[in-house]
Amino acid sequence: MTTLPGTQHHPQQQTQAGSPAPDVPDDRLVVEKGRWITNWQPENPTFWNGPGRPTARQNLIWSVFCEFLGFAVWQMWSVTVIFLPQAGIDLSSSQQFWLVSLPPLIGATARIPYSFTVPIFGGRNWTVISALLLLIPTVATTLILMADSPPVWILFVIAATAGLGGGNFASSMSNITFFYPKAEKGQALGVNAAGGNLGVAVAQLVIPIAVTLFAFGAFQPNLPMAGLIWIPFILVAAWGARKYMHNLSNASNDIKGSLSALKEKHLWIISFLYVGAFGSFMGFGSVFPTLISKQFPDFSSFTVLGAALSLAFLGPLVGSLSRPYGGRLADRAGGARVSIAVFLCMAVVTAVMVLLLDTISFAGYLVLFLVLFTLTGLANGSVYRMIPTVFELSVPADDPVGHERKSAAALGYIGAVGGFGGFAIPQVLNFSESATGAFTTAFWVFAAAYLLMAAVTWAVYHRPGTRFAEANV
Q1: Is 208 found in the same domain as 309?
Q2: How far apart are CA 256 and CA 197, in angstroms?
Q3: In this structure, are 173 and 242 located in the same domain?
Q4: Same domain, yes or no, for 322 and 222?
Q5: How big is the chain by its Cα radius of gyration, in Å?
Q6: What is the CATH classification number for the domain harbouring 101?
Q7: What are the φ/ψ torsions at residue 168 (nearest 5 degrees)?
Q8: How far apart are CA 142 and CA 159, in angstroms?
Q9: Which of 107, 222, 315, 470 has the fewest CB atoms below 10 angstroms from its CB?
Q10: For 241, what's the count of Cα atoms within 13 Å in the CB-facing half-sphere?
Q11: pTM listed for this prediction
Q12: Separation CA 116–CA 124 (nearest Å)
């Protein structure tokens, strides 16, 4: 056990988790064996402006790195799938859509148990474990893509394990929540989320380069690199998390709050809206490389200095970068107002895409999708921003659980439900192509869904005369 900087500490002097003994100054950090901090007080200005802020920032940096890798692995197959035919692995169109939609399905499901892991194992410990779990899909992908004509069902199983990366978001966000004071939680969580989301763009940029730049001999393209390239970074992330992150003794699971939140109707309303926001980001992110390869095969990738470059990464990139701005706009204008405007714009862009689908050039197609991705990022920020205020206004003052506990629990559930959009969008596109031979029906469905989400947001949270509208939720 160490007391930083330079004071003595005795176990019997610790009164309770997160509350230092009287003789431990507020400008000291008490770290016990296993890097457990036993006097974490982010709401104490002396502590926070002393050892608190730099310690929280250090944990945030490694949390972002590990979550970034989680997203990259989560979306690994979204771009790997377009190189399978070149390696002699022929899949039907339906099989391609299933291959890119299984990781979002498993990832969204994994978010639920992952959200409870930090208090059980410790934030630092679980970050190490969750990082090492990423070796399962990456090593398996490397090995299976070395084989000649692997069975399709094995590809499905391995792609599904990539969903473990999607669970990292829930545990990472839960962990960082405990480190920051209330006044700075939003900004910290925004950085954490945006940094993780960037993993989608980086995966779609790096994998095409890796599988072509390192191609040699019988490996044309060198598909095993799609998994192999991430392994050294995963090991570094696990090492860094173990060495530099901390566990907090005052982090605890709120089972009562979690169960109580499930009974709140606004959890399910906002989850529906988040399917349109984060679900659209993940769904279109998963399927964008496939859509380009199907509709504009000549533009699926470009050769630059012997390496393939896919422009599909630009979509998730602008979607990730725009997310913090959605939160800022919501802070200024209100989350409901921003969400309504964004959903309406998403409906318009999607409708325009449908109307021009048969005549549009690749440049126009790319621009429309970049606008759509930007809007999904703004929606992510604005919808997420609404959650604490909605629960503060909807939960009665005499509720034994309280709005803060319900809101905290709701964040995890809403993130999980929203993730299922990453599975739904590829499957709607798959059904549309199978039934009609085109994607037109799917895009009309998306446009209608965004209009419905805008209408629900207005009716519930922005309609004049409601308490939510008066509070400018």
Answers
A1: no
A2: 30
A3: yes
A4: no
A5: 23
A6: 1.20.1250.20
A7: -60, -30
A8: 12
A9: 470
A10: 28
A11: 0.85
A12: 14
Percent of the chain with pLDDT over 90: 55
User: Distance between CA 380 and CA 280 in Å, rounded?
Assistant: 9
Q: How far apart are CA 427 and CA 433, in angstroms?
A: 10
Hey, what are 364's tokens? 């126009």
What does the block give as tokens for 385? 């921003």
Tokens of 123: 């934030």
Confidence at 15, pLDDT banded by 50, 70, 90: very low
Q: Which of 196, 228, 253 is the last residue of a domain?
A: 253
pLDDT digits (tens, 9 = 90+) for 283-314: 999 999 989 988 888 877 666 655 567 788 89
Number of domains in the chain: 2
* CA nearest to 270, candidates 397, 405, 411: 411
Q: Give the domain extent around 47.
A: 1-253
Residue with tokens 């982010």: 42
CA-to-CA distance for 165 and 240, rounded, in angstroms?
18
The C-alpha atoms of residue 201 and residue 174 are separated, in whole angstroms, by 23
DSSP 92: -
pLDDT digits over 360-400, tens only?
A: 899 999 999 999 999 999 999 899 889 888 988 988 888 88
Last residue of a domain, one of 220, 253, 286: 253
Retrieve residue 425's tokens.
């969008």
